[in-house]
Amino acid sequence: MASTTPPFVLSLSHTRFTIPKHHTQRLTDCRLSFPSMSSFHRRSDLFPPSRSKFRRRSKGSIPSAYITGPASDPIFADNDPKIDDSSSPGENVQPSNAISWGLLWSLLGQHKLRLAASILTLVSCTTCTLSMPILSGRFFEVLIGVRPEPLWKLLSKVGVLYALEPVFTVIFVVNMTTIWEKVMSNLRAQIFQRVLIQKVEFFDRYKVGELTALLTSDLGSLKDIVSENISRDRGFRALSEVIGTICILFTLSPQLAPLLGLLMLSVSVLVAVYKRSTVPVFKAHGMAQASIADCVTETFSAIRTVRSFGGEKRQMSMFRSQVLAFQTSGIKLGAFKSLNESLTRTAVYISLMALYCLGGSKVKAGELSIGTVASFIGYTFTLTFAVQGLVNTFGDLRGAFAATERINSVLCGVEVDEALAYGLQRDINRKEVNDKNFELFFVNGSDGNNQSLNMHYMSALKSTSNLDTLVWSGDVCLEDVHFSYPLRPDVQILNGLNLTLKCGTVTALVGPSGAGKSTIVQLLARFYEPTRGRITVAGEDVRTFDKSEWARVVSIVNQEPVLFSVSVGENIAYGLPDDYVSKEDIIKAAKAANAHDFIISLPQGYDTLVGERGGLLSGGQRQRVAIARALLKNAPMLILDEATSALDAASERLVQDALNHLMKGRTTLVIAHRLSTVQNAHQIALCSDGKIAELGTHFELLGKKGQYASLVGIQRLAFE
Ligand SMILES: Nc1ncnc2c1ncn2[C@@H]1O[C@H](COP(=O)(O)OP(=O)(O)OP(=O)(O)O)[C@@H](O)[C@H]1O
């Protein structure tokens, strides 16, 4: 389909941009962080739109289109996921846990050598520790002359143990810390990725603060389970000491050991029963903490609104109640913890008393040597600390389990956006990708924890058509589209909507507030999928393309473009987040977006930081940076959702100029309340009651004297 310049587009034929002949490797060196301007390199191509160059995947690369059902000429890799034709995406998907034992094992499995070293050193330092009471007993026996061993020999053995124990401890702690830090980094990356690939409705459901808490405090308590439990009296060491001590006690005195063993068993049962009752307290504490984070995030992200309404006192009072709730749950938690410790101590004191009474009488009766009782006393103390430490560890474990359950309940898996996850996983798996950027997201032996979810998405691959080509050359059609938002399934927003966005032309979408215009944008952007009907491009259902591929062919500029808190240049370069972008290309894009002049007048030019969400720039400046970003992206389809409505007349003119440039030759959908701004569009669609009620050019619709004509009349009156 031929591309035509809309009549209202200012002629910019004098502006021409060179198209670099070569294509640089896409994704070869993915730039996930934002390098400074000086490190930007050449990108593959640049605006203006040219259908002769398609910078995306070359033929023969990984296929990107799939359909369910039989395929005439399927081109797919053996390891592409398939489902039988009867099941649709999402059907029969078993919720899978974000954190599972399997995943933890795979992550730990990457550190086999270190694990082996840890186990060896754990056994060694426990052996040292547990040998000491035996030597102490012998020491007393040597002193009172019942043991014929030279004192210097005994002392040198003690000296060697004292020297070795700290060395083994250091090796054990260093190895355990290293393993767990690495495992946690992997896990954090996995969870981040898992959140990132959720469907958009997931983000409608959960607040940013809740999601932040998952990745910070909840994963933090999982991290603490090892970092806080590698000291002598905690965790594995405590466990090995308890087991070792009980074994030694049985060897030393089969008569005394059962009593102490029984006492230990009682302690464990008591503690276990007690701990079961504390799970809700841990959960409540975690949730109270998440609420605080939530309140803080909400307050500071809306600080201007808070200021403008004088809402400080209200926010303070909200914060106060969250903090008090956290405090109450913390105190309750503390009480449970301390009670737990006291219980342990009391039980161990009882065992010591039992030892004094029983052991003492056996020594008097000549059935037990004094050295053995002395060793027993030493072991009872070892047990005291070890059992106490174990109970603390169980407490931490409870917290970690509660946190894991929270993470798993939020990320239960059924809301994963498979069309996104699948494409992303394949991009990451591609050989060209710089592995260093993604190594944290890999788990040995599997593609992370999303593999099974993706197995339900697609069946057979139909074509490898270049999506870029399709969008540059074909119409985009909404066919009998029905839609209701997942969080409000009863409210039908679109009701059999049909609309064709002709290739290379401008379609304006107008209509009363709440009619569903922005919803159409969200569907075109594939933030949501239609509940019935379909969206096609050049006749192909868009659902047959993975979403990351789709994202590359659609640019959206809306009323409130979001900038990242990096430099202006880096924000523009975000148009091609996977590519290196040269400074010249950025400047070229900025010039075309009427942004260059204001950018160079900023203190550090293109390196000037724009502040959080671009707050250090004016609305018009933000808008032009967003347009430059879209120009750099050079996507064949463009969506302008009220892109100029928040601007004053001067800014609007500059932005409109830039937009006209951007729209040239692209399939464009413009949403505007001010009808004067869209009257030159190739076609105007009036959306009402979830359908397109009227369609035609400005004059055709005026001639119909329908809803559009009356809207124009109302706006004209308002203007006059
Ligand atoms: N994420 C969401 N979840 C549930 N309902 C939503 C969501 N977003 C929008 N809606 C609802 O969908 C309906 C259509 O909203 P939409 O934003 O598409 O209208 P619009 O025509 O763009 O309105 P306006 O011109 O005022 O921007 C509204 O009733 C709105 O409340």
From TrEMBL:
<feature type="transmembrane region" description="Helical">
    <location>
        <begin position="160"/>
        <end position="180"/>
    </location>
</feature>
<dbReference type="InterPro" id="IPR017871">
    <property type="entry name" value="ABC_transporter-like_CS"/>
</dbReference>
<dbReference type="InterPro" id="IPR011527">
    <property type="entry name" value="ABC1_TM_dom"/>
</dbReference>
<feature type="transmembrane region" description="Helical">
    <location>
        <begin position="242"/>
        <end position="274"/>
    </location>
</feature>
<keyword id="KW-0547">Nucleotide-binding</keyword>
<dbReference type="Pfam" id="PF00005">
    <property type="entry name" value="ABC_tran"/>
</dbReference>
<feature type="domain" description="ABC transporter">
    <location>
        <begin position="476"/>
        <end position="714"/>
    </location>
</feature>
<dbReference type="GO" id="GO:0005743">
    <property type="term" value="C:mitochondrial inner membrane"/>
</dbReference>
<keyword id="KW-1133">Transmembrane helix</keyword>
<protein>
    <recommendedName>
        <fullName>ABC transporter B family member 28</fullName>
    </recommendedName>
</protein>
<feature type="region of interest" description="Disordered">
    <location>
        <begin position="48"/>
        <end position="93"/>
    </location>
</feature>
<dbReference type="InterPro" id="IPR036640">
    <property type="entry name" value="ABC1_TM_sf"/>
</dbReference>
<keyword id="KW-0472">Membrane</keyword>
<dbReference type="InterPro" id="IPR039421">
    <property type="entry name" value="Type_1_exporter"/>
</dbReference>
<dbReference type="GO" id="GO:0090374">
    <property type="term" value="P:oligopeptide export from mitochondrion"/>
</dbReference>
<dbReference type="GO" id="GO:0015421">
    <property type="term" value="F:ABC-type oligopeptide transporter activity"/>
</dbReference>
<keyword id="KW-0812">Transmembrane</keyword>
<feature type="transmembrane region" description="Helical">
    <location>
        <begin position="115"/>
        <end position="140"/>
    </location>
</feature>
<keyword id="KW-0813">Transport</keyword>
<feature type="domain" description="ABC transmembrane type-1">
    <location>
        <begin position="116"/>
        <end position="399"/>
    </location>
</feature>
<dbReference type="InterPro" id="IPR003593">
    <property type="entry name" value="AAA+_ATPase"/>
</dbReference>
<keyword id="KW-0067">ATP-binding</keyword>
<dbReference type="GO" id="GO:0016887">
    <property type="term" value="F:ATP hydrolysis activity"/>
</dbReference>
<dbReference type="Pfam" id="PF00664">
    <property type="entry name" value="ABC_membrane"/>
</dbReference>
<dbReference type="InterPro" id="IPR003439">
    <property type="entry name" value="ABC_transporter-like_ATP-bd"/>
</dbReference>
<dbReference type="InterPro" id="IPR027417">
    <property type="entry name" value="P-loop_NTPase"/>
</dbReference>
<dbReference type="GO" id="GO:0005524">
    <property type="term" value="F:ATP binding"/>
</dbReference>
